[in-house]
């Protein structure tokens, strides 16, 4: 339920003006704004120079109109520059802050590299650690501050005292900073 059937509008702002509100009508995909899908639109406008923000939103009409927007990338065909506007939020009256329109500032290229690095590290960490969360595993968290264990059992029981001698428990070390 992250896609939308509502009408989506965008306004692009640059150093030489803006496009005004434009409806995104014809995607290169047969059905637009589906969950996990990248849609590509052509918007004709005068050259706006360097872009600095967009306003994007939808009409709020139709069933299941809420929309989770990851990002918008605008390619300037004259300068061959890509402008990225990160959102990663809901445009939905019943989710997040209830707004169905967002004003997004252009994202600096260094932020994009940092986000890509963070996402890569997150994937690597999950690949290395997901075995701990397989069905049937008992997890023990050790708190160095209290020198105590918290044990999460496969049957959903939580043991605040834990069992240091349980050889089948997976021990995770947690630092608590106060």
From TrEMBL:
Where does the PLAT domain lie? Answer: 1-105
Superkingdom is: Eukaryota
Which InterPro entries did the record assign? Inner_ear_hair_cell_LOXHD (IPR052970), PLAT/LH2_dom (IPR001024), PLAT/LH2_dom_sf (IPR036392)
Annotated protein name in UniProt: LOXH1 protein
């Amino acid at each position: 339920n992250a896609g939308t059937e509502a009408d989506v509008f965008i306004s692009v702002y640059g150093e030489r003006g803006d496009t005004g509100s434009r409806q995104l009508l014809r995607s290169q995909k047969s059905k637009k704004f589906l969950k996990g899908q990248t849609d590509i639109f052509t918007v004709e406008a005068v050259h706006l120079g360097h872009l600095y923000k967009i306003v994007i939103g939808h009409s709020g009409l139709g069933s299941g109109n809420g929309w989770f927007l990851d990002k918008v990338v605008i390619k300037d065909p004259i300068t061959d520059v890509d402008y990225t506007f990160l959102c990663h939020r809901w445009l939905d009256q019943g989710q997040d802050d209830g707004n169905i329109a967002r004003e997004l500032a252009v994202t600096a290229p260094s932020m994009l590299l940092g986000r890509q690095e963070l996402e890569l590290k997150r994937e690597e960490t999950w690949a290395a650690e997901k075995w701990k969360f397989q069905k049937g595993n008992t997890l023990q968290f050790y708190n160095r501050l209290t020198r105590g264990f918290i044990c999460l059992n496969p049957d959903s029981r939580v043991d605040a005292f834990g069992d240091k001698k349980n050889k089948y428990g997976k021990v995770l070390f947690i630092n608590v900073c106060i």
